[in-house]
Amino acid sequence: MLRYLGNRLWQSALTLLLASVVVFGGVRALPGDPATTMAGEEADPATVAAVRAELGLDQPLVVQYGKFLTSALTGDFGDSVRTGTPVADLIGATLPVTVQLALYAMAIAVLLGTTGGVLAAVFRGRWPEWAANAFSLTALSVPTFWLGILAVLYLAVHLGWFPASGYVSPLDDPLRGLHHLTLPALILGLAHSAVVQRQTRGSMVGTLTADFVRTARAKGLGGRAVVFRYGLRNSLVVVVTVVGLELGGLIGGAVVTERIFTLPGVGKLTLDAVFTRDYPVVQAVVLVITGAYIVINLLVDVLYTLIDPRIRVSGGTR
Amino acid sequence: MTTATTQEPLTPGGTTTAPAVHGRSRGRVPRRLLRDPMGVAGAVLLLIVLVAGVFAPWLAPYPPTEVHFRTPFQQPATVGFALGTDDLGRDILSRVLHGARASLQVGALAVLLAVAVGVPLGLLAGYWRWLDALVSRLADLMLAFPFLILAVGLAAINGGGLANAAVAIGIAHIPAMIRVVRAETLRLADADFVLAAHAMDAGPVRVLGRHVLPNALPAIIVQATVIMPAAVLGEAVLSFLGLGIQPPDPSLGIMLSDAQNYLMRTPWPGVFPGIAIALICLGFNLFGDALRDALDPRTKPSGGRR
């Protein structure tokens, strides 16, 4: 177990390191010279050179990368070109919104997905399976952001059930905070619930037709016990896997959802930064999100081995 | 040596798991497809979508960017404007048709990119074990970048556009393609006909090109039907955010983004592009599912119990 953990840990660190190289290189590949931009287009070469030296851009790339990496490790991502605020502060202010949204959406996706998947597997060939299939196909095909726009129009503006936009911190008012996030999270979670449902169904069908389940049934074990004790428990690995795999999509979806519901999250910060060419912010956001994604995937992998010890063996030696 | 993140799909009915195709006689797959009502529905829908997209310039009554200032916000089923007009009086039907065409172009380019990079890498990784570690590592690294963040980064460098969207979506689907082809190659490496080819002194190019690749083709096609709807949705999302196709070029995502501004007053400019996206994706999803079932000898043609 420890050896497996160690392996996964250094592999994650390596991936993160490579990601930082890609981010660093990508920002350097951008058109335009930051020193010229900061000094102004009309500045004389001496001023530009001074600014370049101040920014450390006259040093070799390797040295620059080293500096970038060491300051990033201490949480220092420089200042936003647009507002002058430290990038770390901007991320600190917006990240909680996105994390809440993502967790809430994932909870909805897992709840809807496992319920639908279990029903579809248990009632194979009957109407619950058809309903579940129709739901998942629709949820996978309909663009969620379009659904979001329509939901704002009808559920929020027309019926007034939910607030159409805005964010309330749960620290100020937990109930209102939850209420504000419900519609965005539902919209965001819907597409992912379809994926969870399909995988759960596939896994449940596989388990329920397995020999050991037939044995258990032959020994007189009731239907409900078989479904929950054998089927669902074995499907848990799948659910955890899908949750891990879907997180990337969820982060991407959060960008769109935040835009539709005007939530002040990381997604909005990223988009604003891209459109105003605020490169320090873009660089930091990409690195932080990638890092978070890698860490979450690491946690998911560790979680598997706790749920299903067999994975440790095959994962470590293959 | 691969890691836990490169585990094979754990589910028997996994969405991207390649079915075993050994011993599949020719003609059985189309027949199984035709017997599956979902597959038929998907194929018909796909045919309509493809015809609409390919022939959009001839089918559309107006050029997609033609402005009719005197007739903004026409209701659907108005004479001359079957689906009405938007705020600038542009014909919605023409824009939806051209937008669908752009979506399909992005999808085709993305599939091309994923195939061009993913298939050779998957074949090599499956064939030479020493390359496997390197390629799998690369796939892991690419998977570590969430797709939209990748697209945002690319847009920051390239400034958006159809090609930007296609490249971002294509890159995002390379790792999955590598894994599918790698798994197929590993599976086929022990097949009798591959062993026979080895015995007859066939080189790696011949073995991979003549024996492994044709047998891996169904899995690659199924994977392409997974990429297409994802690409269509991805293009819509990117263009909606302003990172994909740039106005005034027609895009379903841009139409939705525009429509959001006056949705309270006139909803239909925002309804039809959404329906178009949904229909395109539904076509690919239905057809892809049916194709996977048809290729999978474990499922019965009727789609009933296994």
From TrEMBL, chain A:
Record-linked InterPro entries: BPD_transp_1_N, MetI-like, MetI-like_sf
Species per Swiss-Prot/TrEMBL record: Streptomyces ruber
Annotated ranges, domain ABC transmembrane type-1: 95-300
Presence of the UniProt keyword Nucleus in the record: no
Protein name: Peptide ABC transporter
Domain of life: Bacteria
GO molecular function, one term: dipeptide transmembrane transporter activity
Family recorded in the similarity comment: Belongs to the binding-protein-dependent transport system permease family.
Keywords, sorted A to Z: Cell membrane, Membrane, Transmembrane, Transmembrane helix, Transport
Main location: membrane
Location(s), subcellular: Cell membrane
Pfam families xref list: BPD_transp_1, BPD_transp_1_N
Listed PROSITE patterns: ABC_TM1
One cellular component term from this protein's GO annotations in UniProt: plasma membrane
Membrane topology field: Multi-pass membrane protein
Residue intervals passing through the bilayer: 101-123, 135-157, 177-196, 236-261, 281-304
TrEMBL record, chain B:
GO terms, biological process: transmembrane transport
Biased composition (Low complexity): 11-20
Pfam families cross-referenced by the UniProt entry: BPD_transp_1, OppC_N
Domain ABC transmembrane type-1 intervals: 100-288
CDD domains linked to this entry: TM_PBP2
A Gene Ontology term for the protein's cellular component: plasma membrane
Top-level taxon of origin: Bacteria
Statement: the UniProt record of this protein carries the keyword Iron: no
Membrane-related topology note: Multi-pass membrane protein
Protein's name in the database: Glutathione ABC transporter permease GsiD
Organism: Streptomyces ruber
